[in-house]
Design goal:
With 120 residues, the protein is mainly alpha-helical. It contains three helices and two strands; from the N terminus they run ααββα. It has a two-stranded antiparallel sheet with strand order 1-2.
């Protein structure tokens, strides 16, 4: 009959150590090759001189905040009175008031007169 035997340790620690050492050596060689290639490619792209950097507008640091600020400025202009060009007497009025005036102008008898194309 078969004699009872206990299970022997199935791991070959020396082989695992050698495999680990091979992986470490390969990793070091790959990193050295990448560094050498990077040093060879890097001089091809010199830094941009400060005089060649484009002026404003630049990239936005926080676009959502900038968008909200822009919308607030636009909303304020749409809802307030103000001068566009004081020397020419051009002003802006709130949009609701402008629509009311335009609607009243469209329904007046003068608005039904033929337009010669000089004014909208």
């Amino acid at each position: 009959m078969n004699a009872r035997r206990h299970e022997q340790d199935g791991t070959d620690t020396l082989a695992l150590f050698r495999l680990g050492a091979v992986f470490v050596v390969l990793l070091v060689l790959i990193l050295a090759a990448m560094y050498a290639l990077w040093q060879r490619v890097l001089p091809r792209y010199p830094p941009i001189p400060a005089k060649d950097i484009p002026s404003s507008p630049r990239l936005q640091a926080v676009p959502p905040v900038d968008r909200i600020t822009l919308y607030r400025v636009q909303h304020t202009q749409l809802e307030s009175y103000g001068w566009i060009d004081p020397s020419k007497g051009t002003a802006h009025i709130p949009i609701e008031r402008a629509m009311t005036l335009l609607a009243a102008q469209k329904t007046s008898p003068a608005a039904s007169a033929p337009n010669d194309g000089a004014h909208p």
